[in-house]
Design goal:
Radius of gyration: 33 Å
Shape: elongated
Helix content: 25-40%
Structural class: alpha+beta
Number of strands: 23
Number of helices: 9
Strand order of the largest sheet: 11-12-1-15-23-22
């Protein structure tokens, strides 16, 4: 099983795409170029909605409210001039939020009972032909607001973007208190009401503007996080969208290129077999991955020299002691058991290839080269090639990757080495190749699988997958593609990190 398979277990992808230049309006066309797809169902949206208030709070608190100036004509040719400065928000609380998925349209989000106190300074002046004076007082605005947002997801600059321009605020209460004075004098009473109207306009405009800003910051943050997660060294995966997101009453779905980029080369997927009917709706989150995507990443990993393993010293000795191969020649036993520093080196010789089917899981074909060195000698005692075909079944539990492999074909032949160069007959080769094949089957293959499990889990932990609450993940093989489905708990650390960066 290649290391990148379980990348898709990360919820950071969140069904939003990365950098892309194309977005096809025709779904059938978009499907053809889809290497990966994501479906977020209604129960998942419920979980996400539970954290919506934190993002809304950030929007309120992060909004920059402009200075507001105005004037009011009074009797006898006089007028009142005023300015509101340093408007800040305090004591913010949010009652509850509710949402609805609107097929073909977007998402309806209603935030009710938002209570907040705004504080600032009012500078005002009153003038006429009889008197002219000015003053400055602190003020508080005690408010209670309902917030309605109807976000729409679309393709913007080649990625999923959010449009929250359909935004409205309903004020149930907006009381202006000057210097905490609940019994203001006549001049304060005079302009309290029309200043309140001005403040409503300012708050409405800034909050809706900030929500749109925060929504797109969040979309960019998630997409960039996903891009970074799906990158390692010179290998990365372009998860740019191939078409606009689809919203039904039961799920949100997005389609991604899944092009593998390695140094100066990029794969192209243009004959995908994806169809939305291949996914169900009983889990919270689904990922659909094509064999084309998986093979392209597998090949990039081979070209980058990722598939190599060196086993030496006591580790190698213990492997052979634990599960000794049949009829191993004496000169190999002495090398492993008695030499000062035995070392076995193996690496991928050719591009690995896989094919997924519903009956046999993922079948992987791999060509491997190996060398056995003894006593620190730079010249191998023996060199060999092995061709292996295995059926692989993957799962993820207790924050660890689990790989189950069934060997269905193995062939090993000698290619050289100090001992092999002395062979003069075909019989000598055959006598060594049989126990060598047995050693690869009993020791080599299980050891490689165990190392892959450990290394992939380590890589996933490095990228933060162990911080996610993933429940009952299933890896389901189908013909030429695989479906990964799971339930999850909202990754609180992602929200904390997003809010930290937003408020910097």
């Amino acid at each position: 099983m290649p290391w990148w398979w379980t990348f898709v277990l990360v919820v950071l992808v969140w069904c939003t795409g990365g950098m892309s230049q194309d977005c096809m309006e025709d779904p059938a066309q978009a499907y053809r170029f889809t290497g990966a797809a994501c479906r977020l169902t209604y129960p998942a949206a419920v979980v996400l909605n539970e954290k919506t208030t934190k993002v809304i709070e950030a929007a309120f608190q992060h909004a920059k409210y402009p200075c507001m100036k105005g004037e009011k004509s009074l009797l006898f040719g006089s007028k009142l001039l005023y300015g509101l400065d340093n408007l800040e928000i305090y004591n913010l609380t949010i009652g509850q939020s509710a949402f609805e998925l609107r097929p073909g349209e977007g998402i309806s989000l209603n935030i009710s009972n938002v209570s907040a106190v705004f504080k600032g300074t009012i500078k005002y002046g009153y003038g006429s032909w009889l008197v002219n004076f000015g003053n400055s007082v602190d003020f508080e605005i005690d408010s209670q607001i309902d917030l309605g947002i109807n976000p729409k997801l679309y393709c913007g600059n080649g990625k999923v973007a959010a449009d929250t321009s359909d935004c409205s605020l309903k004020f149930h209460k907006l009381d202006l208190l000057l210097q905490g004075d609940r019994e203001p004098n006549w001049i304060k009473k005079l302009f309290t009401n029309f200043i309140t109207f001005t403040v409503k306009l300012a708050i409405r405009g800034q909050i809706c503007q900030e929500i749109n800003k925060v929504a797109n910051i969040l979309a960019d943050f998630i997409q960039q996080t996903a891009e970074n997660f799906l990158s390692d060294g010179d290998i990365s995966v372009n998860i740019g969208v191939t078409g606009p997101p689809v919203i039904t009453a039961n799920y949100i779905e997005s389609y991604h290129k899944g092009f593998t980029k390695y140094r100066n080369t990029t794969t192209v997927i243009d004959e995908s077999i994806f169809n939305p009917a291949q996914l169900t709706e009983h889990k919270m989150l689904y990922f659909w991955l094509s064999d084309q995507l998986m093979n392209s990443v597998l090949n990039a990993a081979h070209q980058d020299g990722r598939f190599q393993l060196n086993i030496s010293g006591t580790e190698l000795t213990e492997l052979f002691n634990t599960n000794p191969p049949d009829a191993l020649p004496e000169f190999i036993q002495k090398c492993i058991m008695e030499s000062s520093s035995p070392e076995l080196r193996v690496w991928s010789k050719t591009n690995p290839y896989l094919n997924t089917s519903r009956d046999f899981g993922t079948t992987v074909w791999a060509g491997v080269s190996g060398q056995l060195h003894c006593g620190g000698s730079p010249t191998p005692l023996i060199s060999f090639d092995t061709n292996v075909a295995m059926e692989i079944w993957a799962s993820y539990a207790n924050k660890k990757l689990i790989l189950l492999g069934k060997l269905i074909e193995i062939f090993t032949h000698l290619t050289g080495g100090e001992v092999v160069d002395t062979f003069t007959t075909i019989l000598e080769y055959e006598k060594l190749e049989t126990p060598l094949t047995n050693a690869v089957e009993k020791i080599g293959v299980p050891r490689v699988i165990a190392v892959l499990e450990t290394e992939i889990t380590r890589l996933l932990d490095k990228q933060g997958v162990n911080l996610f609450d993933i429940y009952n993940p299933e890896v389901i093989p189908r013909d030429n593609y695989v479906v990964i489905q799971m339930d999850f708990g909202f990754p609180h650390h992602l929200l904390v990190e997003f809010l930290r960066k937003t408020l910097e």
